[in-house]
Amino acid sequence: MGIKSFQGPRKKQQQEQAESAAIKVSDYMTKDLITFKPEQSIEEVIQMLIENKISGGPVVNDNNELVGIISEGDCLKQISESRYYNMPMEQSNVESRMVKHVETIDGNMDIFDAAKQFLNSRIRRFPILEHGKLIGQISQKDILKAALKLKGQNWK
């Protein structure tokens, strides 16, 4: 009589536990966002970025629909060009500097899939939309926080 291997059922059970323990993007996304309006001045944005210690944020219209993203880099471009062309910064607004084609992410996506998307796209933050409205944002730092929590539960 041969020895039976029970590795098959154990692996299946471990796989089911891992799937049930999956952490979604929506579990770690930031919901209380600092947003910007297209008509705001770049100076206002710079002030808000500094005061709130953030590197950028979503730009929304009056209906809370995402229309773009503005970042420190976009503001730096404005500062550089305004000095080079000797143009006052007061004349420039968010709409003229923001990135209009914004990549979003699904709030139901697994946190590890989101990490891979961050690596593939080289983006620092992804807005999360629901029915066309901005409901949150996930950053690389949020993914790192989720990974630390998972390490305590699953990694050895």
From TrEMBL:
Family annotation (PROSITE patterns): CBS
Which source organism does the UniProt entry give? Mangrovimonas yunxiaonensis
The alphabetical list of record keywords is:
CBS domain
Short name of one Pfam family? CBS
- Name the domain of life this protein comes from: Bacteria
Ranked from the top, the taxonomy reads: Bacteria, Pseudomonadati, Bacteroidota, Flavobacteriia, Flavobacteriales
Instruction: Extract the coiled-coil ranges from the record.
Output: none
Q: What is this protein called?
A: Inosine-5-monophosphate dehydrogenase
What SUPFAM superfamilies does this protein map onto? CBS-domain pair
Domain (CBS): give its ranges: 29-89, 98-156
State the CDD domains in the record. Answer: CBS_pair_bac
Q: Which SMART domains match?
A: CBS
